[in-house]
Design goal:
- 2 copies of one chain form a homodimer.
- With about 220 residues, chain A is mainly alpha-helical.
- Chain A has 9 helices and 3 strands, in the order αβααββαααααα.
- A 3-stranded antiparallel beta sheet of chain A has the order 1-3-2.
- The structure holds a DNA duplex (30 and 30 nucleotides).
Chain lengths: ~220, ~220
DNA sequence: AAACTGCCAACTGTCGACAGTTGACACGTT
DNA sequence: AACGTGTCAACTGTCGACAGTTGGCAGTTT
């Protein structure tokens, strides 16, 4: 059936396009041809346009009048500016988490950290999936929906900039240490320390991304 | 001429609609009828839909599938959650401003504060315009475009919630004192203090909005 | 050969019309 | 009278077509 089965065509197009942009199927710098992609998705240009505008509002696409939508590509100064925003948001989230966390939040946080350690000791690289899970668990503990939403958007943009998923062992080890320390601070209800550790953690991640950009 | 003279029809519609939503021409809780508003603006539903989706991405409208777009109305818990986000962003901006401000930034900040004082002493209420100008000047000094952009969006949502523009003299006086103190901290390059003062300031503003909501 | 001019194809911006869904009202039932 | 059911108008979701703009290419000039 043509009618919205469970989600509007525009909504489905958003999901598909976002996936394709984030995974690099549509590479940075390239352009999104409306008629071509519309045919490809089996929908008309109307819903696709809405999807494109939506992704543009998430900064996953850049709109140029009369030229179309482009996938933005990384730039060192952009990375730094983006991480300023991310730091502001996640440090606040860390503080809130320290003062609002419940026992179930702590269980979840410990769980994610433990899985990361197990994974690492088994010789596996620290998957980005688990990093995301950790930050998500922290956001849940912060109980600030608006901050959580913004962090989600920023993280997406960070993913977009991750040209290559880095698996630098020393960096991963330090990240896991940061996570553990963060959990301790949250567990102790030490908001100031949680914020400080988060800031250091993100600063490390940012630096890592910058070096991987210069290669 | 029908062609985009200087901005697309959708872009113009965004500006007009945003104005109407923020000034209460379209009151909170009401619905935006696509055909009606389209005729009213002299455009077709296509560009208007794009405009509506755009404003929805700014959270100035709420989309309900198959029902349309609604102007969200205030809720005490929403206000608190929104101010958590605003606090996170503006405290970070205050810190950055303290470490990055130039002399011209300081001149501009003093200027705005002085105009507020003059205005106040002349018996005029503290206009929201000047409050915005102050926060804007601070953001300029912070030099973090992404944070500035997010603050702009959050401030818009705050305006949307301002059912009645409050002119409570004690509150206004306290706000101006906060601003002055903030400028001092920024001038001294004291990031920690700038952040603290900003937090206190926003907490005061938030409280003021909450009390004005319960009336 | 370099620069300028005029044309052209490709694409976006916009429109009007059709199809499907939603909420409400009227009617009938218990 | 309260409740459930069927119908309907209003509106959103979607589509295909037209109009206007953009960047590039060919041809010409200096």
């Amino acid at each position: 059936m043509t009618p919205p089965l469970h989600l509007s065509l525009a909504g489905q197009a958003v999901d598909v396009l976002r996936e394709q942009v984030l995974t690099g199927v549509i590479p940075p710098g390239s352009r999104v041809n409306e008629v071509e992609v519309a045919q490809q998705l089996g929908i008309s240009r109307g819903p696709l346009r809405e999807a494109i505008r939506h992704l543009a509002s998430e900064r996953l696409l850049t709109l140029v009048p009369h030229r179309g939508a482009f996938v933005p590509d990384a730039d060192a100064s952009d990375v730094r500016a983006l991480f300023e925003l991310r730091t502001a948001l996640e440090c606040a989230a860390a503080e809130l988490a320290a003062s609002r966390r419940t026992d179930v939040d702590l269980v979840r946080l410990h769980e994610v950290c433990a899985e990361s350690r197990r994974n690492y000791k088994a010789g596996q690289p620290f998957p980005y999936r688990l990093d995301l899970a950790f930050h998500q668990a922290l956001l849940d503990a912060a109980r600030s929906p608006h901050i959580a939403e913004q962090v989600r958007l920023v993280q997406q943009r960070v993913v977009l900039l991750r040209s290559a998923l880095e698996d630098d062992p020393p960096h991963q080890h330090a990240s896991m240490d940061d996570h553990d320390e963060l959990v301790k601070a949250v567990e102790d209800g030490d908001a100031a320390r949680a914020s400080t550790v988060m800031r250091r953690h993100l600063s490390r991640v940012c630096a890592q991304m910058l070096t991987s950009l210069n290669r």
